[in-house]
Design a protein that fits this description.
By secondary structure, this protein is α/β, with parallel strands linked by helices. The chain is 37% helix and 15% strand. It has helices spanning 23-32, 42-45, 53-64, 81-84, 100-103, 116-122, 172-178, 191-201, 219-228, 230-237, 249-259, 281-293, 310-330, and strands at residues 11-16, 71-75, 95-99, 132-137, 140-142, 159-161, 163-165, 207-209, 215-218, 264-266, 271-274, 299-302. Strand 2, helix 4 (81-84) and strand 3 (95-99) form a beta-alpha-beta unit. The radius of gyration is 20 Å and the shape is globular. The two termini are 15 Å apart.
Length: 331
């Protein structure tokens, strides 16, 4: 059931998800990757592997954003285990599985894809997707009660969380990579670089530096631009793996909203971010304890959960279980 509060429009959620341990996925991936040794590298595979964090992502949305109408999970012929095994069919009745073939209709020649950027570019092709929607990665969680106005203004404009930043013109990092002091990333495009590309395409002198928070968007802003710039769209979706030309389509839409003065900018990410698996157990416990107490933090992002040692992983997942259950009992 939706509770739109003071807003007079519906809000959906879109999540990208893949089970990289699925045998069919691995066989499909191996057909298109030239360097087979990458299949043994954790740094390459971590973007495909998962530890059922999608379940916690979905449950956190249902618990802390009950006004959301539908939750769409975009997959490649897969279904998360928690949906397969659900006992209460009504609990997840508003969670819909959308296959890649649905959103790539008319562009099937670019499938399969093992790259989030093409999928993000096509995600507004979901049938019946609401004009206002929030994009999640499966490692993003809502951890406190939210309101629709945390994502959209009463006028229907997206609330964008970020800080203005200059383009990176420093070649010193590249020099360090060449001489072996700094490791070169396996991916050809970084999170930061894809943000810069989004602004450069639009001729901007700076870019809005965002973090790993849920991202509110308007479908019409997205589609109007891509309909008029099909060359940019095709270049984005034609690469099965990450390419240096890729840009972050959600930030592209954000920059368009900024140029049109149709958004609200906020510097506070309201985010707790876990970016390293090497932190001590004590650090993790303290960080999560403080996270639960801090009412200013609405979102939690824990990257590469599949790389965490079992003890740390179990603690984090148990913490999420308790948080969701505690707030459910108190409601």
């Amino acid at each position: 059931m939706t509770n739109q509060s003071d807003l007079n429009f519906e809000i959906d959620v879109v999540i990208l998800w893949v089970d990289g341990s699925d045998e069919n996925h691995i066989k499909k991936l191996s057909q298109y990757i030239e360097n087979k040794s990458l299949l043994d590298k954790k740094g390459f595979l971590t973007r495909y592997l998962q530890v059922d964090e999608i379940e916690y992502c979905v449950k956190s949305i249902k618990r802390f954003a009950p006004y959301v109408r539908n939750i769409y999970i975009i997959t490649d012929n897969q279904i998360p285990s928690f949906l397969k095994n659900q006992q209460n069919q009504s609990e997840f009745e508003n969670v819909k599985i959308i296959d890649h073939k649905v959103i790539f209709k008319g562009f099937e020649q670019y499938l399969p894809t093992f790259n989030c950027y093409p999928i993000e570019t096509m995600m507004t092709k979901i049938p019946d997707l609401a004009e206002h929607f929030i994009y999640f990665n499966d490692d993003m969680f809502i951890i406190k009660e939210t309101k629709p106005t945390d994502f959209f203004t009463t006028k229907g404009f997206p609330v964008l969380r970020g800080k203005w930043s200059n383009f990176d013109t420093n070649s010193f990092k590249e020099f360090l990579r060449k001489i072996g002091i700094k490791k070169r990333r396996i991916s050809k495009v970084t999170y930061k670089k894809s943000q810069e590309n989004s602004a450069k395409i639009l001729g901007m002198k700076q870019y809005l530096k965002v973090s790993h928070t849920p991202f509110p968007m308007r479908k019409s802003t997205f589609n109007d631009y891509l309909d008029k710039n099909t060359d940019i769209m095709v270049n984005s979706i034609k690469h099965r793996f990450r390419d240096s030309s890729h840009f972050m389509i959600q930030l592209h839409a954000a920059h368009l909203e900024i140029l049109n003065n149709t958004c609200e900018l906020k510097k506070n990410y309201k985010l707790v971010h876990f970016g390293s698996t090497e932190k001590s157990m004590l650090w993790i416990k303290l960080k999560l304890f403080l996270t639960e107490k801090d009412q200013n933090k609405l979102f939690l992002n824990i990257q590469s959960l599949d790389l965490y040692p079992e003890e740390k992983l179990n603690y984090i997942l148990n913490w999420l279980d308790k948080l969701l259950q505690k707030n459910k009992d108190e409601s």
